[in-house]
Design brief:
The structure holds two protein chains of two kinds.
Chain A: E1 5-8, H1 12-24, E2 31-34, H2 37-45, E3 60-64, H3 72-81, E4 90-94, H4 99-107, E5 112-115, H5 120-137
Parallel strand pairs in A: 1-2, 1-3, 3-4, 4-5
Chain B: H1 7-17, E1 25-26, E2 31-35, E3 42-46, H2 50-53, H3 57-60, H4 75-79, E4 90-95, E5 107-114, E6 117-124, H5 137-149, H6 153-168, E7 172-178, E8 184-191, E9 202-203, H7 210-218, E10 221-224, E11 232-235, E12 238-239, E13 244-245, H8 258-267, E14 271-279, E15 282-291, H9 299-345, H10 348-354, H11 356-363, E16 367-371, E17 376-380, H12 385-397, E18 403-406, H13 409-412, H14 417-420, E19 425-432, E20 437-443, E21 448-453, E22 459-460, E23 466-467, E24 474-479, H15 488-555, H16 561-592, E25 598-601, H17 602-617, E26 622-626, E27 631-634, H18 636-653, E28 660-668, E29 672-679, H19 711-721, E30 726-731, E31 735-743
Helix pairs in contact in B: 5-6, 5-9, 6-9, 9-10, 9-11, 9-15, 15-16, 16-19, 17-18, 18-19
Classes of the chains: A alpha/beta, B alpha+beta.
Chain lengths: 153, 749
């Protein structure tokens, strides 16, 4: 049915808060959580432990900027460089307000960039806006499959 | 060499061309033979030899020297005594002529080698009347010790002329010194009664032609025993070995120019002797001896006089070099003092200005100007600033010369006639021509009287030849337009100062470059720091705020009233810390991001800011007095931020006033636009005015007025990045006004 939301976040607190925010936005999409950039690439490119996953791209990729192993910008670059992944809407989540990061992300073709607000209410609002916009409102690119909601592993 | 336009110049030049070293004849008080150095046979003889030999010169020619003199004179043996490096006639002995010659006392023989031949001069050995007959050595010794006691150059010269007069018996002996143009002024004189005195008088350079001057320099004595002499020609006229007239530069008997003989007769002197004073290889002056009647001076006396003149020259040389060393030390010492002051102030101009008397004394000037791109400072007696500027432009047009000096501004800077009315001499050095950075010294005009010994004009004969002047009466001339001349040591010193100043300027540039490097580095570090603050500090704050809210939401009902209050404090603190971090980051970004300049309409901006802030003052009684505001040039986002801060502050600090009054206005000045925001709020103590714009500086307690203490610091940073200024005025309880300015024309940098 609905394509999953792919959330890549290494910080457990941020992860919990983001999941809570997504939950509150009442999206029907399944949320697949990955904890570092390498894992994210494995999932997206269906390699290693994700070699056998079902076909199809996520509805939206929520990507933290700072990630262990392979950082967010590098993941974004590979997504944009890979023909099958190129059309995945990607949103960069970050604590940083620094311009260089932001510029680099836009150069690499990010769809949106969210500086996580300190206040939880605002955070919920931002996440929910994003999810709704990208996961629900956006027409999926032609040929993409709708998958059933399922757990992350 | 010289450009000869008028007849006088042409005549002087012709006089200077007269070949005085090859006159082809001698003075007849003795005779001259040139002898082949290897065969010792006679090549040339003066026509007057018959007076001594009783034979015409033609019969002497070709004869072996030995056959001409008595057998006991061994010429070859005597020649071995000739000093090797000396070109001057040397007394090799006395000789009797061969048998058959008229009976006579022995003759002095002077020999010197020149022009490829051996030149032998013979002269009578007896002394004239009225001449010192004793031994010369004690005399010379007494003279040398007397020179050491002389305290001035004049005294030194006076000792010398007295001594020379004593041993030669001349009626007048005077010593004069040449100035840089060759005019000679008599500084010492010893005269017999009846002789006119020339002390203090000047003789023009034209009295001694160029080639005669050069001859004085190399041959240090010249004697003319009788101005009415009949020159005796050499036979044959040409030196057989060279085919040219004999070069008699060093011959004691050399005949002199008829112009000079006429000059002597005009002056009323029939005998003269000149001794050169040569200092550092230059003709410094002359000791000139005159006698109204013909006068003989024998070889011994001449040699003694030459020796005295040499001692005098050495004494003068040592004094002058001593003097130079002292001047040089003074110059150096002053350079060091100026450099120290410049280093102290880290500025060339300020350093020099601090010690005006040193700057003036350094060049011996009465006034000076220090000109740089920004300023023109005048010290002492100078022309007006406008005239100095005109001079700097004039100097700039002259091309690449680093130094310029003149002791006659009127003559050398015709383009600026008004300058000559203020100063006589100028010494200017360019520290940097590119940046119009000059140091200039001024000396006043010194009108002086010159007492010429006669009007310094020679008459020209109808043939265009120079005929010497007849009058030696005192003739006064007032010389105007000149300052004291600039000593070459001072000029060298100025160049030295320039090099040192350039060193300082260069070092400052290097320091600046180093500082820029350090700044870049620390800027990079700051960026890295704020980056990590942005990431690492915000995350935990976000977690605290998030979990506090969730806890309150989920478990709030189970908590006590106190517990819920604590939770709300945690929440507030986290949120405040969050905004603190955000503001700090904004603040640091402000210093780094580039300005995007555009026209900013302040009316629109203020309108928008008021709407934006409306929630903050809803329900309050505020009287807004907003004047029509101009359009300024600035970065719209930054200007908005600055104004937003000021208006928000005005709203905040008028809390409790009813009505609150907030006034926003602007004033146009020539170079800048001033904008102000005034309120009738709590105000502040002016004692803290300088603290207002610092980061985290707060003048009120947190409970009274909230805030992170960064707003005004941001305002200042924004305005200063626009090259504007910020300031505040206020009084406790009486309100405050905050002002900032923006340049009306942004420089294109």
């Amino acid at each position: 049915m609905l394509k999953p939301i792919l959330l890549v976040e290494d910080n457990p607190r941020d992860l919990e808060l983001t999941l809570l925010a997504l939950e509150r936005s009442q999206l029907a999409n399944e949320v697949i959580v990955l904890r570092d950039g390498a894992e994210a690439l494995d999932y997206l490119l269906r390699r290693n432990s994700y070699a056998g996953r079902d076909d199809g791209n996520p509805a939206v990729l929520l990507l933290d900027l700072k990630l262990p192993k392979v950082d967010g910008l590098e993941v974004l670059k590979q997504v944009r460089d890979t023909a099958e992944l190129r059309s995945i809407p990607t949103v960069m989540l970050t604590s940083s307000r620094e311009e260089p990061d932001l510029l680099r992300a836009y150069e690499l073709g990010v769809n949106a960039y969210v500086v996580k607000p300190v206040e939880f209410k605002e955070f919920v609002a931002a996440i929910s806006d994003l999810g709704v916009f990208w996961a629900v409102l956006n027409e999926p690119p032609p040929g993409s499959l709708r998958l059933n909601r399922r757990g992350s592993n | 060499m010289t450009t000869d336009h008028n007849p006088l110049d042409q005549a002087i030049e012709r006089c200077a061309q007269e070949p005085i070293q090859i006159p082809g004849s001698i003075q007849p008080q003795g005779f001259l033979l040139t002898v082949d150095d290897s065969t010792l046979r006679v090549l040339q003889a003066s026509e007057n030899v018959d007076r001594w030999f009783g034979l015409p010169a033609s019969e002497i020619l070709g004869q072996s020297f030995a056959e001409l003199v008595s057998a006991d004179f061994d010429l070859r043996g005597q020649l071995d005594y000739l000093p090797e490096a000396d070109v001057f006639p040397f007394h090799i002995g006395d000789v009797r002529l061969r048998q058959g010659a008229p009976d006579q006392p022995p003759l002095r023989v002077l020999a010197h080698r020149h022009d490829q031949v051996l030149i032998l001069e013979f002269e009578p050995s007896q002394k004239a009347d009225g001449v010192y007959k004793g031994d010369y050595y004690p005399l010379v010794r007494a003279f040398v010790s007397s020179l050491h006691q002389a305290t001035s150059i004049e005294e030194l010269l006076l000792h010398s002329v007295r001594q020379i007069k004593r041993i030669t018996g001349f009626g007048r002996v005077k010593a004069y010194r040449f100035d840089s143009e060759g005019n000679g002024t008599v500084l010492a004189e010893s005269v017999d009664p009846g002789y006119p005195s020339y002390l203090g008088l000047s003789f023009p350079a034209s009295d001694i032609p160029r080639q005669a001057r050069e001859l004085y320099r190399i041959n240090r004595i010249r004697l003319i025993e009788d101005a009415n002499y009949q020159p005796s020609p050499l036979l044959p006229a040409l030196n057989p070995l060279t085919g040219k007239p004999l070069d008699m530069s060093f011959a004691a008997l050399r005949s002199v120019s008829p112009v000079h003989l006429q000059y002597m007769r005009n002056m009323g002197t029939l005998a003269s002797m000149s001794l050169s004073i040569v200092v550092d290889g230059q003709l410094w002056g002359l000791v000139s001896c005159h006698h109204e009647r013909p006068r003989q001076v024998d070889v011994q006396t001449r040699t003694a006089c030459e020796l005295l003149a040499s001692v005098l020259s050495l004494q003068l040389e040592s004094r002058e070099s001593h003097e130079r060393t002292r001047t040089l030390l003074d110059l150096r010492e002053r350079i060091v003092r100026m450099l120290a002051a410049m280093a102290d102030h880290d500025s060339v101009s300020l350093g020099l200005l601090e010690q005006p008397e040193v700057l003036l004394a350094f060049a011996g000037a009465n006034g000076a100007a220090i000109i740089s791109a920004e300023r023109c400072d005048l010290i002492g007696e100078t022309p007006t600033a406008a005239q100095v500027n005109a001079l700097v432009h004039w100097l700039g047009r002259r091309g690449d010369e680093v130094i310029f000096h003149t002791d006659n501004v009127g003559r050398d800077i015709e383009e600026l006639p008004e300058l000559a009315s203020r100063v006589g001499g100028i010494l200017a050095v360019a520290i940097s021509q590119l940046h119009s950075h000059y140091l200039v010294w001024f000396r006043p005009e010194q009108a002086r009287l010159v007492n010429w010994a006669g009007q310094p004009e020679k008459a020209i004969s109808p043939q265009g030849h120079l005929s010497p002047r007849h009058s030696f009466d005192r003739w006064q001339e007032e010389v105007r337009g000149f300052s004291a001349p600039w000593d070459s040591l001072v000029i060298d010193g100025v160049l030295e100062l320039r090099m040192a100043v350039l060193g300082i300027v260069l070092r400052k540039a290097e320091e600046l470059a180093q500082l820029t490097g350090e700044l870049k580095r620390s800027n990079k570090e700051l960026e890295a720091f704020s980056y990590s603050v942005s990431h690492d500090l915000r995350a935990p704050l976000r977690h605290i705020a998030g979990y506090t809210e969730l806890l309150n939401e989920i478990e709030g009902e189970h908590l006590s009233e106190r517990g819920r209050r604590f939770l709300s404090h945690i929440d507030e603190a986290a949120r405040f810390a969050g905004s603190l971090v955000d503001n700090l980051l904004n603040f640091s970004q402000m210093g780094r991001s580039a300005l995007r300049l555009a026209d900013v309409d302040l009316n629109t901006l203020v309108h928008a800011i008021r709407q934006e802030l409306e929630p903050d003052y809803q329900g309050r009684d505020i009287v807004w007095a907003i004047a029509p505001l101009p359009v300024v040039i600035g970065d719209p986002a930054f200007i908005n931020m600055a104004l937003h801060n000021l208006v928000a502050n005005a709203i905040k600090y008028t809390r409790g006033r009813a009505p609150a009054r907030i006034e926003i206005g602007a004033m146009q000045h020539e170079q800048e636009t001033e904008v102000y925001v005034r309120d009738n709020g709590v105000g502040f103590d002016m004692a803290y005015a300088n603290k207002l714009f610092g980061v985290f500086q707060r003048l009120h307690r947190m409970e009274e007025f909230e805030g992170t203490g960064i707003g005004l610091a941001s305002v200042r940073r924004i305005i200063e990045r626009h090259d504007g200024r910020v300031w505040a005025e206020g009084q406790v309880g009486q309100g405050a006004s905050f002002h900032f300015t923006l340049p009306r024309h942004q420089p294109h940098s």
